[in-house]
Structures are given as C-alpha cells and as structure tokens.
Amino acid sequence: MPIFFQSFSIPLAFVACFILLKLLPGKNRILGKDRGKKFVIGSEINKGKPTGVGIYFIVVFLLVSLSYIYDGFGMILMLLTMAGAMVSGYLDDIASTPWNEYKKGALDLIVAFIGSVFFVVFYGSDVSIGFNGNSIYIHPAIYILLGSILIIVSINSTNATDGVDGLSGSLSIASILTIMIVSAITGNCTANGFFLGFIMIAVLSAYLMFNIFPSKMMMGDAGSRSIGFFIAFYAMYMKIPFAYLVIGLPFMLDGGLSVLKITIGRVSNKLFHKKVIILKKVLTPVHDHLKQVKGFSARKTWIILTTSAVVVDVAYIILCLIVNLISKY
Q1: Are 75 and 193 in contact (CB under 8 A)?
Q2: What mean pLDDT is predicted for residues 97-120?
Q3: Which of 47, 89, 173, 245 suits a disulfide with 225, CB 3.0-4.6 Å?
C-alpha cells in the first residue's frame, strides 16, 4: 500500500479509539469492574472503575493494522496471536474471581511459544547485533526459546506496571518509540514497521487521555498483556530483540522485579521447603514501594518512573548514534 494512504492509519486509529473510549458502548455487558488490590494503599480509588477497556483499543489497533499494513501471512498470524493474549487477559478481567498465576502463566507460555514459532517461520531468525546493523543468524530452535522468554517477560513486566494512572501506557509509548528510533539507526526500520509502531502509539495516546490523573478507566489484563506481547514482537520484527534488555529496563525494574521476587519465593519453597525472599526491604512492584514506603503520590510516582524511563531511552539512543557514526569512519 502506498505510504500516502498508510499515513491515514495513524489519525484513524486515534480518532476511532478516542470515540470508543469516550462512549464505551456496551460497557455494562462487556467490561468488568476494578476490584482494587488488597494491602495496596490508594488502590481503593480505582475500585469499581471500568476495567478491561484494553479490549476496545487493542481491537482498534488490530483492525487498523490489518487494513493498512500487509507484510505477508506472518503479520496476520502474529496479530492474531496478539489477539489471543488480549482475549485471555480480558477473560481474567471479567472473571468473578481473579485467575491464579499458574493458569495465567500457562496461557502466557502457550501464546509466547506460538508467537515465537510463527515469527521464525515467516520472518527468520536473523537479529541485528551492535549499533551498525550487522546481523547474525541464530538457530531457529534457540530463537524460539529466547523469543518465548522475551514475550513472557514482556507480558508480565508490562502487566505488573499497570498499577499507577498513566504509567503502563506512558512506558509503552516510550519503549515503542525507542525501538523505532534504534532500528532506524541500525537500518532495520521499514515503512511497515514505522506505521505499525505509530498505530499502537496512536491508540495508547487516546487511552491515556482517559487514564491519566485521575483515571476514568483501566486497561486491565486485556490491554497490558497484549501490549507486552506487542512490544516483544515489535523488537523482534525490527530485528533488535536484544535491545529489550535496555529498552525494557523500566518495565523490568518496576514490574519485572515483582514477578521475579514471587517466582523465586514460590520455586524455592516448592523445591527446598524454604521460601527465599529477595529484596526484602523493597516492596514490589517498585511503584507500590514509592507510594507506600516513600509516601509519594500517584502523580509523583508516575513522574519519577516515566522520567527515569525517558532518560534511559534517550541515553541508549545517543549511545547508538555515537557508536554507529564511529563505526562508519
């Protein structure tokens, strides 16, 4: 499709998403209600708010992407797998009682494995290493393993950051922009990749207009889990999956530490009948530590974590530019 027509996808995604979130058609039948979080100070203000609205903006993203971007059958399958992550998250959002971690973990594993297999089959297993665009070949089996781990980490880290108004959406936009810029520096950014990233940024921007302080609605697992899948897929699609170790650092330090802490505790308890607790003095996710231990407001917590993410991303982009320029001369 000509770039001129593809450019309409971005405002279309934003406007369609904004209208849907403004009206929330069928919200009493479709959406769940936020349950609040036990033992989390301040979570009571979100109790009762519509949750699971991720199903609105992710559906908009999927429909617009499938209409304006065609990069073979692989793209269709990857977006459908992302839809699978959205559906599993949505079913948890509307469930009368929250799903346990084992059920959600099993579903994450299935989605991650299927997504990794589809990606290798249709897009190969070459990745860009360094900052000059040079690529290396990774054996498909190893890529599927690493890709599955990347998707699982991204899904759970993104999901765990969704506890402060505007935080998950803001960090996601910063990550997607950074992936886009770094891939452009390394010469891996294509027109399809450019528009795919900006369509997601468009729907997230529309969502943030309703989720920033004070929030009127929550994306729920329907949004956070599918966004996590997309960020991992986007890094793979732009041929820089290892860049997630830096770009995804804000997610991993905030939400990822929570997942790691819980996992180590449960595994050690099951294997050695003794629960090992790391970071005993740090409440995770880190945004809960800032709010409950440090006494920061939700707004201040958002500013600190978002600013930190932007600093990390800008520093990484500058490093990529410098190294790329040096390598050419």
Answers
A1: no
A2: 91
A3: 89
Q: Looking at residue 326, what is its pLDDT?
A: 83
CA–CA gap between residue 179 and residue 171 (Å, rounded)? 12
Does residue 38 carry a pLDDT above 60? no
3 state SS for the chain: CCHHHHCCHHHHHHHHHHHHHHHCCCHHHHCEECCCCCCCCCHHHHCCCEECCHHHHHHHHHHHHHHHCCCCHHHHHHHHHHHHHHHHHHHHHHCCCCCCHHHHHHHHHHHHHHHHHHHHHHHCCEEECCCCCCEEECCHHHHHHHHHHHHHHHHHHHHHCCCCCCHHHHHHHHHHHHHHHHHHHCCCCCHHHHHHHHHHHHHHHHHHHHHCCCCCCECHHHHHHHHHHHHHHHHHHCCCHHHHHHHCHHHHHHHHHHHHHHHHHHHHHHHHCCCCCCCCCCCCCHHHHHHHCCCCCHHHHHHHHHHHHHHHHHHHHHHHHHHHHHHHC
**pTM higher than the cut 0.90:** yes
Domain ranges of the chain: 3-244
pLDDT at 45: 63
The amino acid at residue 164 is V
pLDDT at 39: 40
| Token reading at 167 | 């935080």
Instruction: Name residue 43's amino acid.
Output: S
pLDDT digits (tens, 9 = 90+) for 244-264: 999 998 888 887 777 777 778
* Res. 66: pLDDT tops 90: yes
φ, ψ of residue 125 to 5 degrees: the values are: -130, 30
